[in-house]
Amino acid sequence: MGAALGGGQGLPPARPRGDRQVTQLFDPVPRGTPRQKHSSKITVYVSDEELLALEQARLTLRAGFGVAVDRGRVVREAIAVVLADLAEHGADSVLVRRLRQDGAS
Q1: Smallest Cα–Cα separation from 19: which of 92, 105, 91?
Q2: Would you call 77 helix, strand, or coil by DSSP?
Q3: pTM (two decimals)
């Protein structure tokens, strides 16, 4: 899977440095996919607090806005939103700012 994220098969490096132009690998206005059988899977570990917050968001969507979705759909939409922001704002995106703040590199 590492080659699919950069470095191999003619793709740009997975972790660009500085404020270089990044080759766009995704739709600039992505949408999370609806509930369906997906062909790819990842495992993400979250804290108890993150899981509770995700479940609370799901319940708020249902009770407060009439939007009944599963947690996976919420996560896919969140990924779509953060990737769209990265594509539009690059180094000034929320993702880059938060990861830099956390010391990830």
Answers
A1: 91
A2: helix
A3: 0.63
